[in-house]
Amino acid sequence: MMTNAISFQQRLQKLRALEPYAYQVAHYLLQDDAAAAEASQTALLEISQQDSFQTETPEQLRSLMKKLVIRTSLAKSPRMAQI
């Protein structure tokens, strides 16, 4: 029985490919290792739960990841929220 859903391993592989980029963006914004790790984890969890995660191209996922990381970074940093 074939389905359009991607397997757990494929989902995990996509998330692992996005993880360094997510952390890099978050660290650039937050300038803090722990806060960047937390923001990138939150964004990775959010992107993994989106319906479009299965069908987006790598470029589209990277763009969406950047948006989510910026949003989660702003939410986690009182300093960033003032900007």
Automatic annotation (TrEMBL):
Highest taxon of source: Bacteria
Designated name of the protein: Uncharacterized protein
